[in-house]
Amino acid sequence: MVKDLTQAELLTELEPVVADSLNRHLAITAAWNPHDYVPWGDGRNFAALGGRDWIESQSKLSEVARVAMVTNLLTEDNLPSYHRYIGENLSVDGAWGTWVGRWTAEENRHSIAIRDYLVVTRSVDPVQLEIDRMEHVARGVHAPEEFEGLLIQLAYVTVQEVATRITHRQTGRVCNDTIADTMLKRIAQDENLHAVFYRNILEAGFNLAPDQAIEAVTKVIREFDMPGRGMRDWRRNGVLMVKHGIYDLRQHLDEVLMPLLRTWKVFERNDFSARGDQYRNELGEFLDKLQSDVVRFEERRAHLLERDAKRAAAARVAATG
């Protein structure tokens, strides 16, 4: 029977990979400033300083764009929880700690840029945005107990970073605003580099402790949910974003899960014990079910979009008499 490595052993064995990956990340990451992506000339005072408070007609974004931007922002806002949780499951010492600090600082730029853009352009109600931020950050992130540990945390953040990259990119496309699209492309580039970092560390984890790694990946994929869960109107907003292709099951399967599993050679490896093979089989069965779910979802979405289009057309006819 293969003996599992302890958390301390995994941290020690993987630290050289972390150091190399950190140096590579710093070498290829381009510096950028949030203020360069905000149209400051569009700004004006609110009532507290003698101006006018927000009203919905000031927003140039569609409802789905506003929902997606706020969801992305509030997700980024929970950095205090993420920093604590990642620090507890990885380490705040050595190369691990340097990475955790660097990752947190880079992620913080995302929330700065998005919030400044939304407030300056009056795209959303800033009062409600602050209420939602206070509530969401105060609640924090509480991962299930089975998600404790180094490898399972690496698996989760890898999947989450790829998913977040797609969400930002797709949000930019529905904003119908060049500045917002450019800003979210820049943020998505960061998320991609973060995903590559975590993906590579977990690849080394597969080579070091294959059974533990496949167990972690299987659990995360079967129970995955985005970290913004719990924010106000989460379900309604999620449905709207799925409906309009911001992030849906097809993207989750084809653009997130399968590329990662191919990189890790999950279904090609021959170094699993019977235990590892059992988890791999469970994962394969889950992916088969997910594929069926994707087909059903796409059929239902097509029906809903067709129905909405007919209703909109009927409304236009009625409005024109």
Automatic annotation (TrEMBL):
InterPro entries noted in UniProt: Fatty_acid_desaturase-2 (IPR005067), Ferritin-like_SF (IPR009078), RNR-like (IPR012348)
UniProt cross-references to Gene3D superfamilies, sorted A to Z: Ribonucleotide Reductase, subunit A
Alphabetical UniProt keywords: Fatty acid biosynthesis, Fatty acid metabolism, Iron, Lipid biosynthesis, Lipid metabolism, Metal-binding, Oxidoreductase
Necessary cofactors: Fe(2+)
Cited Pfam families: FA_desaturase_2 (PF03405)
Annotated family: Belongs to the fatty acid desaturase type 2 family.
Subunit structure: Homodimer.
Protein name: Acyl-ACP desaturase
Record lineage: Bacteria, Bacillati, Actinomycetota, Actinomycetes, Mycobacteriales
